[in-house]
């Protein structure tokens, strides 16, 4: 067999859904630290309906720092939590919370291998709340929090622990 590989891109793709907005749930959360030492929760967003149900839409994270707290508030609000006052929350409390999330491909170089990779990322304010209306999920603006709109009860999942955010 003879083949000229010079025309084949050497990019590792971890994209499993098309760019756009997807109805997702938080499938798993990993507690860690950011470069500045702040607590960081990294989580996997799994598509929950349509042709791509069960696939990972993206990995995202919340950094509990002075700089990152505005985004933490907006993401938690979009996930259905009441952030109008004090909130006590653990990373595992995010599991199974739902939102509509925008994802877009992002290319970067892996610092360890030097290989180019493409992964889906969520824009800074790429979350939108999903309201519950009976058994039907209805999309709603982030700022329209209503009592009784809480998502389904949390349940732990055990997905592939080797699949990581980067």
**Termini gap:** 35 Å
What profile does the largest beta sheet have? 8 strands, mixed
The topology string of helices and strands comes to EEEEHEEEE
**What is the helical fraction, as a range of percent?**
under 10%
Count the DSSP helices: 1
Radius of gyration: 17 Å
Per DSSP E runs of 2 or more residues, the count of β-strands stands at: 8
List the helices and strands and how they pair.
Layout: E1 11-13, E2 20-33, E3 39-47, E4 56-64, H1 69-78, E5 98-109, E6 116-121, E7 127-133, E8 136-140
Parallel strand pairs: 1-6
Antiparallel strand pairs: 2-3, 2-5, 3-4, 5-6, 5-7, 7-8
Write structural notes for this entry:
The chain is mainly beta and about 170 residues long. It has one domain (about 10-140). Helices cover about 5% and strands about 40% of the residues. The chain contains one helix and eight strands. The protein has one helix spanning about 70-80, and strands at about 10-15, 20-35, 40-45, 55-65, 100-110, 115-120, 125-135, 135-140. Strands 1, 2, 3, 4, 5, 6, 7 and 8 form an eight-stranded mixed β-sheet that branches. A hairpin with a 2-residue loop joins strand 7 and strand 8. The longest helix is centred in the middle third of the chain and has 10 residues, at about 70-80. It is globular. The chain starts with 10 loop residues before the first strand and ends in a 26-residue tail after the last strand. Mean pLDDT is about 85; it is low at about 135-165.
Outline:
Helix content is 6%, strand content 39%. The chain is mostly beta strands and 166 residues long.
Question: Any descriptors?
Answer:
single chain; 166 residues; mainly beta; 8-stranded mixed β-sheet; 1 helix; 8 strands
